[in-house]
Protein: Copper-containing nitrite reductase
Amino acid sequence: MKRIITSFALALLTLQACKQTTSDNGAKTTENSAMDMKVSGETEVQKKLDPPLVPAAIGNRAAKKVVVHLEATEEEGELADGVTYKFWTFNSTVPGTFIRIRVGDEVELHLKNASNSVMPHNIDLHAVNGPGGGAEATNVAPGKEAIFNFKALNPGLYVYHCAAAPVPLHIANGMYGLILVEPEGGLPKVDREYYIMQGEFYTKGKTDEKGLQEFDQDKGVDERPTYVVFNGKKNKLMGADALEAKVGETVRFFVGNGGPNLVSSFHVIGEIFDRVYVEGGDMINKNVQTTVIPAGGAAMVEFKVEEPGNYILVDHSIFRAFNKGAIGMLKVTGEKNPKIFHKVQ
Ligand SMILES: [Cu+2]
Structure:
């Protein structure tokens, strides 16, 4: 009897020692074990791809050192057809370049500020454990470069943004993006991945008023955006820029919300999210119609496309979609499937 009790106590102790969080997606990393992970192999220089594209999946590789280059820029671009705006960006796109690493990776992040910038900029990555998410360490004057190192301890999909003063202005002008920290062993394989980030813009002129538009501080404070958009432009992901998939494929959207003010109710008309990584973390919700994405937050949504057609992406706070620009399209091609969907008359 004594021996049984001893072995039971031993088993309990072992269980305690191995305590770890096992998430729905099979991630088995604790912050402590991530901290102890050694990096190995060749240093990777992260590829710069423009949204809605993302770097290839990490898969099963070991933790390594990754060098990320970002450049803060201030440049004019199109906010809507015939409407221009002086955007502040990371790597000349809104949102900025998608950063893709795995838990345990050591990142050497270079933030350059373009020589023709007027303002200092920096970066706060929500994936970082450390003061300001790196903001103080990267405050950089025009023409200069700052470098800081961090180790990714927590898997998930995280927002990064500029946090230079005045913070709301830097975010309102488009300085945000996403960083994905994949769990050990990677994310489940899917056929397509796309990067979508919502943000609001506050202009002096009304929605669609032509010409170069200035930032409107009062509208910003009052949370009355002139534009709510995906990927930096009204109706950006429509027409030639629509996303694509084929019947039978699985699709994953990395969806972020830069804000600066609004919470997004992300929805795809005619589809149901089979899986949502709630708030970009480990928890998975299934069979979701609309997912809430807070300002400064993100979510991963996955679904299989069963029927050809045009599927419309919206913020289901619906005036934002049809009047202010938070609308996009996923074009699905392939064989019709009358068992799933057909018009009778
Ligand atoms: Cu900035």
In short: The chain has a mean pLDDT of 93. The first strand starts at residue 44 and ends at 45. The two ends are 76 Å apart (CA to CA).
